[in-house]
Amino acid sequence: MTAKVVAIANQKGGVGKTTTALTLGAALSRLSQRVLIMDMDPHANASIHMAFFPEETPHTLYDLFAEKEHDPAIWERIIVRHPESERDFVTGHIRLSELEVDTKDRPNKGLILREALKDVSGRYDYILLDCPPHVGVLLVNALVACDLLIIPVQTDFLALHGLRLIFDTVRMINRVMPEPVRFKALATMYDRRASACRRVLNLIRKKLQGNMFNTVINTDTKFREASAQGKVIYDIDPQSRGATEYTLLAKEIMQL
């Protein structure tokens, strides 16, 4: 059995992308799934959140992309185990921003990650990719490698612009892919008390029809509290609304 690769991406920041990657990873682990989380963002927010500081980590995701020749042993160097959660993690690094130049003349540079993941796919049930917000070699690699793209969408009108941008990128990728990228949008930061949120949610559901998760992630101050402590929401309040909703999301994904 090979892992299902799930990319979490949106070209608008602040929509809950990293929160989704980390919390979904924790939810899947709590459901007895083997999970690897990969931080593909040069800002390394997911890594820092989980106290994996790139400057203190000898090997990061950059090493995988910087290899001149594929070496399956690279995974033994770049995968780290979180001491408390016992989830596997690959740390991001600011040097990932250099890959546009570093891979400029490299053939098949969009396939680097997909080919490399074949070496570890049997170890995991899910591999989650926390993607950068901008179009480039990293986002292209993630979209080419993934079995499912999750697009977190904050339920406000400005977020609809980011949705259009990621759809433009997906269409670009689909021109060269044998099969189109499968995607589902995830409504995040929803406040049912706000009429604007309700209107945006209804609008997105109408536009995307079946390409949207039934699960909706409501606003929950526990997410901010967990982030401030370098934890995920399950670590501080596993019975909270946010924790319950990400568990529902994980179950929904497992049924796909």
SSE topology sketch:
Layout: E1 4-8, H1 17-30, E2 35-39, H2 45-49, H3 61-66, H4 74-78, E3 79-81, E4 88-90, H5 99-102, H6 112-117, E5 126-130, H7 137-145, E6 148-154, H8 159-174, E7 183-190, H9 195-208, E8 212-218, H10 221-228, H11 233-236, H12 241-254
Helix pairs in contact: 1-12
In short:
The chain has helices spanning 17-30, 45-49, 61-66, 74-78, 99-102, 112-117, 137-145, 159-174, 195-208, 221-228, 233-236, 241-254; strands spanning 4-8, 35-39, 79-81, 88-90, 126-130, 148-154, 183-190, 212-218. It is an alpha/beta fold.
CATH superfamily: P-loop containing nucleotide triphosphate hydrolases
Strands, count: 8
Termini Cα gap:
16 Å
Integer-rounded radius of gyration: 17 Å
Sheet with the most strands, sense and barrel status: 8 strands, mixed
Helical proportion? 40-55%
Tally of contiguous helical segments? 12
Q: Which structural class matches the secondary elements? A: alpha/beta
Q: How large a portion of the residues is in β-strands, by DSSP E? A: 15-25%
Whole-number average pLDDT? 93
* Strand order in space, largest sheet: 3-4-2-5-1-6-7-8
Keywords:
eight-stranded mixed β-sheet, 8 strands, Rossmann fold, 12 helices
How would you describe this protein?
The protein has one domain: P-loop containing nucleotide triphosphate hydrolases (Rossmann fold), CATH 3.40.50.300. 41% of the residues lie in helices and 17% in strands. It is built from twelve helices and eight strands. It has an eight-stranded mixed β-sheet with strand order 3-4-2-5-1-6-7-8, with helices on both faces. The longest helix is centred in the middle third of the chain and has 16 residues. The two termini are 16 Å apart. The model has no long low-confidence stretch (mean pLDDT 93).
